[in-house]
Amino acid sequence: MRRLFKGLTDDAGNVEPGRVYPDQGAPIIRNGESGPELVKARWGMPSPRSVLKTERDPGVTNIRNLASPHWRRWLGREHRCLVPLTSFSEPRGKGKGFQWFVPIEDGPIFFAGIETRGWTSVRKVKDGETTDDLFAFLTSPPNAEVGAIHPKAMPVILTKPEEWDAWLGGISAAELQRPLPDGALKLIEDPI
Fold first, then answer.
1. What pLDDT sits at residue 19?
2. φ, ψ for residue 119, nearest 5 deg
3. What does the radius of gyration of the chain's CA atoms come to, in whole angstroms?
4. Which of 74, 15, 10 is nearest to 36 (CA)?
5. Within its chain, how far is the Cα of 166 from the centroid?
6. In the chain, domain spans
7. Which distant-in-sequence residues (6+ apart) come within 8 Å of 51 by Cβ?
């Protein structure tokens, strides 16, 4: 990450390799006061109040509807982040496991993410109220490879430095809310 982002401040500490699941901490690169910073944040942005049945908010892992008043407050440059990844998965169907995907081309890749800092909520009843930095990622209609498994959506994946810079720089979210081209992903059995 330090080689990819000039002036990167590393506040994430030693990030262990492994899989990341919703409601867990993961590394993100976000806009800091003095440039890009690498930090850990919890996966799952705040849920709209209208969908919560109790005080507990499990969080929202991905963002599809940019027109929603709930999401509009977090679409600006100050809430942008990049979520590094090596592979990602989509469920094959109830009880059928997951299908994993990687880009055909080698190189660093990121989800286009949205983040907020210092959000207080009850994520788990046993933990009570906690204050966390949170993130989720933007989704788009799927490309052919993902659409065969998950016809609703796929993560917005950024593969080029100019896309990373544009996202962190504040380009309209709608301009980058698009799938990778058909043929850009290959299916694999296990995560990388």
1. 85
2. -85, 125
3. 16
4. 10
5. 16
6. 9-86+108-181
7. none
DSSP string, 59-75: -BSEE--TT-HHHHTT-
Tokens at 20, concatenated: 């990341």
Identity of the residue numbered 12? A
- Cα 18 to Cα 164: distance, rounded to the nearest angstrom: 23
Contact between 60 and 116 under an 8 Å Cβ cutoff? The reply is: no
Could you tell me the pTM of the whole model?
Answer: 0.94
Q: What is the pLDDT of residue 16?
A: 78
Name the one residue in this structure whose structure tokens are 């008043």. Answer: 69
Instruction: Give the C-alpha separation, 35 to 10, whole Å.
Output: 11
- Give the CATH number of domain 9-86+108-181: 3.90.1680.20
pLDDT at 94: 86
Which segments of the chain have a pLDDT < 50?
none
Q: Give me the pLDDT at residue 110, please.
A: 97
Structure tokens at 69: 């008043």
Among 126, 111, 124, 85, which residue's Cα sits nearest to residue 173?
111
Token reading at 31:
């806009």
Amino acid at 37: E
Pick from 132, 137, 136, 138: nearest CA to 117: 132
